[in-house]
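Justification of resources, computational component.

The compute hours requested in this renewal are based largely on the per-chain cost of generating structure records like the one below. Each record pairs the submitted sequence with a full structure-token output. That output is archived, and it is also reused by downstream analysis tasks.
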Amino acid sequence: MNDVPKHVAFIMDGNGRWAKSKKLPRSAGHKKGSETLRDIVEYAATLKIKYITAYTFSTENWSRPKEEVSAIMTLLEDYLDDALKKSKKRDIKIRVIGKLEGLSDSIIHKIKKLELITKDKPGLCVIFAINYGGRDEIVRATKIIAEKFKQGTITEITEEVFAQFLDTGNVPDPDFLIRTSGELRTSNFLPWQLAYSEFYFTDKHWPDFSKEDFDLALLEYANRKRRFGKTV
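The structure output for this chain reads:
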């Protein structure tokens, strides 16, 4: 496919609604959603997409029922275990953004191990936003910059300098954001990085989002003209 975006961000919405529509527990929706993510990641790698960022668990998600949070964390740990098993055979790099504080020691250990093992992988980079909030990310970056400015290690604050201290670091901003389940908002996801991204919304719940749905989204992206605020 021509004009494939370098970086695609996903707000994987609708797991709970998918489960409710099938009279299943919400945990079943999250499980099916994790399977969908595996499929989309594998497919994206074949399309030569360079980066995928998946909104996995937000800072606000802690307010959900304890049983649901526990189920999500179990699925996350299962996903990390699977990625560790496959890491030797795949060229996929794994990164995690957000705050590790609040996650279990086991999950933190597996995240760090997976990032270390895959850091030099040449293929698709998959970024998981876990315990992530966009405003929190900006506040944390601002505190670091303020301290460095005070110490004199930074003498000028520009957009480029500021971006270096975000969780995404040297990762290019997303070209394309896809949100499933019909919601039309970004929900505190990458507010700085999405400034000039193209947005795509679909009514499909995330567990039903297929490779064919991804192709349709990518086709629409290919037909858009990105202006970055300029007149063309």
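The longest strand covers residues 51-58. The CA atoms of residues 159 and 192 lie 10 Å apart.
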